[in-house]
Amino acid sequence: MKTLIVNADDFGFARDVNEGIVEAHRSGILTATTLMANGDAFEHAVQLARENPTLDVGCHFVLVGNGRSMVPPYRALPASVSKLAAAVYLGHMDIEAELEAQLGRIVAAGILPVHIDAHKHTHLLPPVLNAIVKVAGRYGVRFIRRPFDLPLGTMSPRIPFTKKQTAHGISLLRGHFRRILESNGYLFTDHFAGFQLTGRFEAAHLAGLIAALPEGSTELMTHPGYCREELAAARTRLRESRERELEALRAPEVKAALRENGIHLAGYRQLL
Question: pTM above the 0.70 mark?
């Protein structure tokens, strides 16, 4: 059986992003999303989650780039993964306390997530993953994203060489990452796609990926949204591409690819 979970990252980042995610769920193939506890549009996202109970909402831990820490003295988060790593290894940031504050805010808003991931895949850093394992367990989270891309077929968009090299480097952590999750009782999908596709795919690419899905469960990471005034002014490289992804997630040929290839759409709760 082939099962596909289509997850949108960055719920809570901006109202334009929130509304695009909900539209991708209502009229497209999106089944799940992960919420940024420190996002500027967090309350708006929570309200939309209440209005759309079939949308499976998880937690998107944010440790770099966007916003401020949620623990005193509420400093700006490190600007990059390398700066985060330095802060963690030098003892300048209490990762566990930060994760606790973020996940706690989501639960306090009435959302009980069963799946989590991390902005910029910072949970690939061993100290971050170890802290996530501890904090997520206290809240009953079952799934943690294992962000190792499937091989892309001939229908894939043009991927920059540096992106391919990064994906290859990440893949070297696959075995260790799996052992940590399994030894702590966490679940994960059999496959993952979306790291190399972020900001690049359109409907034809998505239909091609669906046709080539392997047996088992796959998570597809997406970033849909509307590129209106709010998002255009935000500090992010993903602007116009969010509308292209939204269009792809709603496209008739993508829905047809699901039917023709016998793909079952699901959220994480359905996998449980």
Answer: yes
